[in-house]
Design goal:
Number of helices: 4
Helix content: over 70%
Oligomer: single chain
Radius of gyration: 14 Å
Distance between the termini: 24 Å
Shape: elongated
Order of helices and strands: HHHH
Length: 82
């Protein structure tokens, strides 16, 4: 998994670029990211309860934040093993 996928997901989500987010969902190698994007887009287009849309949006952003943090930690461990 590359950091640009997470950065793209964050950018597309914050700027409402749903078509690009859909393409990222299909192309990413991160199955969890793909699922979170899928749940958000499905909720955004078909859910009538605004709170559920906001919750799925927040879940996607939380996952992206977590994944970016983990990716950064792994990169730092490779550079500085101690």
């Amino acid at each position: 998994m590359s950091m640009p996928d997470y950065e793209r997901a964050l950018y597309y989500t914050l700027w409402g670029q749903w078509d690009e987010l859909l393409l990222l969902m299909v192309r990413t190698q991160d199955d969890m990211l793909s699922k979170k994007i899928h749940l958000f887009l499905n909720s955004y287009h078909y859910e009538s309860d605004q709170e559920k849309v906001i919750l799925s949006h927040d879940n996607l952003l939380d996952y992206v934040d977590h994944a970016m943090y983990q990716e950064t930690q792994m990169t730092q461990e490779k550079v500085h093993p101690f």
